[in-house]
Amino acid sequence: MVKEECKALLDALNKVTACYRHMVLTIGGTSDSQNLREELKKTRQKAQELAVANRNKLTTVLKDKTVSKEDKAEFERLWVIFSTCLEILEIDMRRALELGHEFPLNVPKKHLIQTGMSGGTSGVAARAMSVQNMKYEAERNIDVVDLKDLENEINQVGEMMYEMEMKVNVPQWTVEAKQDPGAELKSTISVGASSIGMISVEENKSFCDISKVLAGIIFSAVLIIAIILAVCVVKLS
Fold first, then answer.
1. Which fold has domain 1-106+119-179?
2. Could you state, in order of their start, the residue ranges of all structural domains in the chain?
3. Which helix (H) or strand (E) holds 90?
4. Which of these, 17, 89, 94, 8, lies nearest to 54 by C-alpha position?
5. Which InterPro entries match (predicted)?
6. 3-state helix, strand, coil in the chain (%, to 5)
7. Each residue's pLDDT tens digit, 39-52
8. Is the pLDDT of residue 134 over 50?
9. CA 211, CA 214: separation in Å to the nearest integer?
10. What is the average per-residue pLDDT within 9-17?
């Protein structure tokens, strides 16, 4: 039960983090607006809430001495995935801070990033956070106020990552993957084998075509010889 809850929380965090990265890339572009900045704020706050929930769940389980060896290995794997996801979130938050300083909304200027995207981003945020509709009444100069909050939240995420390392020490190189060693190579080989099989089929097809041509030539030659012999017999008679 706890394992399924941790997986569900981690899956939700992964989706919201991916949504946040998608929206960060639109800062300074043609779809940048106060609504986007507010959606970014709500999305990263949602990601931080999920991160805290993940941390609390996994920390409690990994400190439990009664957990079996197999379950502990699975929770350690989830912990590594969670730590990686949190690092990605911090990187994107720093990127959002830099882009926010470079493209303030309160200073009218031409868009320097032509992303080729237009329209709102509420749909993306809504799908990631399971919300029907995300409409915000953005305050004026939301980007200026939000950048200060973003700096503080970046520091909070960094402190969370540091506390995680102090409370639970799970080196990434000690966690075993669920797939067998060389699984990716085997899949590649199988794909290559199928390609080779297709090539052999093509070769067989070409061989069959050549055989048909040769059979046609031989049949024509025999037919011509038979006609010549028939003509000779008629002349002799």
1. Methane Monooxygenase Hydroxylase; Chain G, domain 1 (1.20.58)
2. 1-106+119-179, 207-236
3. helix 69-102
4. 8
5. RGS7BP/RGS9BP
6. 75, 0, 25
7. 999 999 999 999 99
8. no
9. 5
10. 94
